[in-house]
Write a structure and sequence with these properties.
About 60% of the residues lie in helices and about 10% in strands. The protein is an alpha/beta fold and about 290 residues long.
Length: about 290
């Protein structure tokens, strides 16, 4: 019976760690940038010409319908321009699926509709890698993430991601699901106890589970509750600073990479407070009459 209970605790570490990792990766690399982009879009696109976009830029709506344009390779030009060897100020996100969607739009509607962002330097992948390298160096590590130089854009371009409608509802649900996955995953992982085999096969999950040790199995004094709640609130305030103040989350021209770190800090902070609440509820049930 004792072996079975210990095995169950190890399974909680593995299950919770897996859920948390999936949630934080999905939330950081997909849900957060998608929600940021969706919040900068209105429900209907602003119609404009190529010249208007290049000269005036994006105003208060990143959902744009470009009219009288054509595409050569990944670059967009006015339909009347014959020499496509000239430098273009607009390009389409260069993945096969997105390029196919752009070509279909141009062939069917003679327009290109989608979310437009302006890149004056490194793209999202480069900026995110640079931030990770900076954090690693500050912690005394030597992590040098390499991103292909093709994503670097020193001159600045308007980048179009073709789409026919704004998916704000989907983006909100995806963001909420990622946040819940991280919080519940960390709570489940922290409630378990890794076996020796678990420590060998899943060392990261085993280390993460140690964070929940002071609140595990009925432990947790008032001081511990206050400490964890304070750490959680600190991380939430850091998340606010990264996402809202620095990252300008949901604002045109905001920094998605800062919002990604804000999502990670905020979700871990909420998990810390959630762990305190769970510990208090469990202790009350344990010491309640007839409990």
């Amino acid at each position: 019976m004792q072996f079975y209970d210990h095995q169950t605790r190890s399974l909680r570490v593995i299950l919770g760690g897996t859920i948390a990792i999936v949630g934080i990766v999905w939330g950081a690399l997909h849900a957060t940038p998608e929600l940021h982009g969706a919040l900068t879009m209105r429900s209907s696109p602003s119609e404009m010409t190529y010249e208007a976009l290049v000269e005036k830029g994006i105003t208060d709506n990143s959902f744009v319908r470009l009219v009288d344009v054509k595409m050569d390779n990944v670059y967009v030009y006015p339909s009347e321009q014959t020499d496509t060897k000239k430098t273009s100020g607009v390009k389409v996100v260069s993945t096969p699926q997105i390029l196919s969607a752009a070509n279909q739009q141009l062939s069917r509607f003679k327009t290109l509709t989608g979310r437009v962002t302006y890149q004056t330097g490194p793209g999202f992948e480069v900026d995110l890698a640079n931030r990770i390298n900076h954090v690693a160096h500050r912690l005394g590590g030597n992590l040098d993430l390499h991103v292909p130089s093709e994503t670097h854009n020193p001159k600045g371009l308007y980048v179009v991601e073709p789409m026919r409608s704004r998916n704000l509802g989907v983006a909100k649900y995806s963001f909420a699901a990622s946040l819940i996955a991280v919080v519940l995953g960390l709570a489940i992982c922290g409630s378990g106890s890794p076996s020796l085999l678990c420590c060998i096969v899943f060392p990261l999950f085993a280390i993460v589970s140690l964070v929940g040790l002071p609140l595990r199995y009925g432990r947790g004094s008032t001081f511990t509750h206050v400490l964890y709640a304070a750490l959680g609130m600190g991380l939430i305030l850091l998340a606010y600073d990264l996402m809202i103040t620095e990252g300008q989350f949901g604002v045109i021209g905001g920094d998605p990479s800062a919002s990604v770190f804000g999502f990670a800090a905020g979700s871990i902070g909420i998990a810390a407070i959630f762990g305190v609440v769970c510990n208090i509820v469990a202790r009350r049930r344990e010491f309640a009459p007839g409990g």
